Amino acid sequence: MPAYKILLVEDDEALKLIVKNNLVQNHYDVLTAEDGHKALELYNNNNFDLIILDITLPEIDGFQVVKTIRKKDEQTPIIFISDSSSTEDKITGLTIGGDDYITKPFSMEELLLKIKIFLKRSQIKPFSTTFKIGKYIFQPEELILTIKDNVRSLTGKEAELIKYFTENTNKTLSRNEILENVWGSNDYFLGRSLDVFISRLRKYFAEDPSIKIINLHGIGFRFLVKSREE
User: Fold this and answer.
1) CATH class, range 5-122
2) Is the pLDDT score of 228 beyond 90?
3) What mean pLDDT is predicted for residues 96-112?
């Protein structure tokens, strides 16, 4: 089986070398970039299985790199590595399309474990499934939510969250349950990120009044879909 190909974007030469050497020792094929322009050039000319990148990059910062990539690619796992432990940076990184955010300094064991988990998830090819949610048609594998002639493209995390809600329609879900099942972790900044995603989904489902995401203060949420008879 060919080695997984990883794009590593880091402007600190010493850290980049350490991370690259560890990845190569673990049998990954690694290409590196030291700025945002080079990162996008490599991305556009290769097929990567996973991307690791810093935020504070020369030329184009990591946030803008991810925004550019996510315009055409919602699937490739992206892990931010950053000096910033700011809650706002973490929320921004996750809401624009990052799958995880690791604060420097970090252990290589932690990074390698996260890489392994994300690559395993990304290789699972589920059967195509379509969900009917009120007046909407939801296609999670295609990352599409449709009502009438309005087709909305979703991010990977938006689709995961809608799918989790759909599988638990009309049930009370704690914040911890949602975070653990959709993000795989329960941290404060992920909780803040969840609130941002909930606000987005409310807008997405606004055309059907039978669908509501109820905020249960101190508990969590309920994805309420009223039947036609109600």
Assistant:
1) alpha beta
2) no
3) 91
